[in-house]
Amino acid sequence: MKIVGVGAGRNLLTAEAMDTIKNAAVIYGSKRAIELAKEHIRSDQCECHEIKDYSRISELPDHAVVLSTGDPMLSGLGRFAKPGDTIMPGISSMQIACARLGVEETKIAAVTAHARDIDYAKATIVRELKLGKTVFVLPDPRFNLRDIAKFLLDRGFSVPVAVCEQLAYPDERIVIGTTEKPPDVRSGNFSLMIGDAIRDVDGGASLPMIGVLGPEGTFSEHAAKRWAEKRPKLKYYDDISEIVSSVGKTIDFGVVPIENSLEGSIGITLDALLKYHVTIIDEITLPIRHCLLARSEDAGNIETIVSHPQPIAQCRRFLREHFSDVDIQVAASTAHAAKLASTQDGVAAIAHAETAPKYGLNILFEDIQETNGNQTRFIVLGTMASQPTGHDKTSIVVDLRKDRPGALHELLGEFASRGMNLTKIESRPTRKALGDYLFYIDFQGHIQDEGVRDLMEVIERTTAMVKVLGSYPEAET
User: Fold this and answer.
1) What top-level class would CATH report for the domain 291-368?
2) Are 346 and 329 in contact (CB under 8 A)?
3) 65 has which bridge partners?
4) Is 151 a catalytic residue?
5) Where in the chain is the domain with CATH 3.30.70.260?
């Protein structure tokens, strides 16, 4: 049996949860849980049963999928699971609040006051605050914030209080106050965070944590700053796969390169998208302009040039014409190369011009890429799907059935017959057998469009595997 969290509200399903629900033959859940997941339930092959007593789910068939609003572990539903059952946490309101406020979940203790004894809830909050925890509270209408604030003040707790209303909805509102001056509560759909972990948060509109390739100065960092509406909080990684695997855990979003106009797709990114349960929520196209940077102002002193493999390939002509006898070495990123060049004489780095002042380097040559049309496409990864904008792109990966002639032709015919424009198709080895390939396909349209849903149902029936990597706004080029 699989117990799947469907989130705190609509559109809060993880990619793993969507795949499980889509492939389910029988689903059990509360009326609200089924309603939240209905867009992903295939009515032609799945039976849905409403249940009210979750304590008896251990009696359900082993192949059943049980839907839980929020997070099954946070709600306590996980305790009813049998050994061997799979529990897939949903995107709970606590996780959203932590992401919005920039608070690590390890610092949080969850207290559910809903339909429980208020005095017991108050005592639990006090106990957790004494232990140094910040408390996340799921209240109900009986839970009066001003009374709770006074209760805590009387016991010596002068701490910040955040009111989180309509989380993940268009009218989301987060306001921070204190137990001395608690914020007003304007909505019945709210939660609270109480404690010192939010003491340094400014005004409640905390910035998301975005994972990028590091150190400072990479093109990934530039793409993230261009995408973020405000100055983002960045976490630097050495590896693309590590960024992808961290989305929804230690970071809110990841920004990674997926394709360059000169050198093609980034294989590491494609492999990571297949492996991890993340969703592409946006894309950025960044013009790439390379410079040669060094501590010395004399290019004649250069003995070694270092950079990421992609920039090296994009500057082959320049290197051949000006530095044919120089040793070329590979670094994890352009910023790593610049950092190395800043520590050694005779070493130059191929990197972005803005990297030079960060590492005290001189710009020896500018615009050394082979063409001024050099662009890299970056994708933004998250856990919540993007809503349709009317100008969207969908990315999928397909595993065709083996030993069936014309399978790819039939697949492409499904797009053509519906007038759907493919923007990219690329094969990549499955690594299972020679000649066995996956196909990565980008096409215009959103997974919530009726025509796209119809197309996906056909593809699912006629292929061995299809995974939707995301539907997201198409970047202007």
Assistant:
1) alpha beta
2) no
3) 2, 27
4) no
5) 386-477
Contact criterion met (CB below 8 Å) for 388 and 379: no
Catalytic residue among 157, 219, 323, 378: 378
Q: Choose, from 376, 383, 394, 463, the residue flagged as catalytic.
A: 376
Active site residue 376: yes
Superfamily of domain 386-477: ACT domain (3.30.70.260)
In the chain, CATH 3.40.190.10 covers 291-368
Cβ neighbours of residue 343 under 8 Å, at least 6 residues apart? none
Half-sphere exposure of 304 (CA within 13 A, CB side): 15
Q: How many CB atoms lie within 10 A of CB 154?
A: 9
Looking at domain 94-198, its CATH class is alpha beta
Full pLDDT tens readout for the chain, 477 residues: 888 777 655 556 667 778 888 889 999 988 888 887 888 888 778 999 998 887 788 888 888 999 887 555 445 565 676 777 777 766 667 777 887 787 887 888 887 665 457 788 888 899 999 998 999 887 766 778 888 899 999 888 988 999 988 776 656 788 888 898 888 887 777 888 999 888 655 543 456 789 999 888 889 999 998 898 656 788 999 899 999 999 988 888 999 999 998 888 999 999 999 999 899 999 999 998 999 999 999 999 999 999 988 899 999 999 999 999 999 999 988 999 999 999 999 999 999 998 998 899 999 999 999 888 889 999 999 988 888 999 999 999 999 876 567 888 889 999 999 999 999 999 999 887 777 889 999 999 999 999 999 999 999 988 889 999 999 999 876
Which CATH fold topology does 2-91 show? Cobalt-precorrin-4 Transmethylase; domain 1 (3.40.1010)
Would you give the end-to-end CA distance of the chain in angstroms? Answer: 46
Q: C-alpha angle with apex 368: 425 to 333, nearest 5 degrees?
A: 65
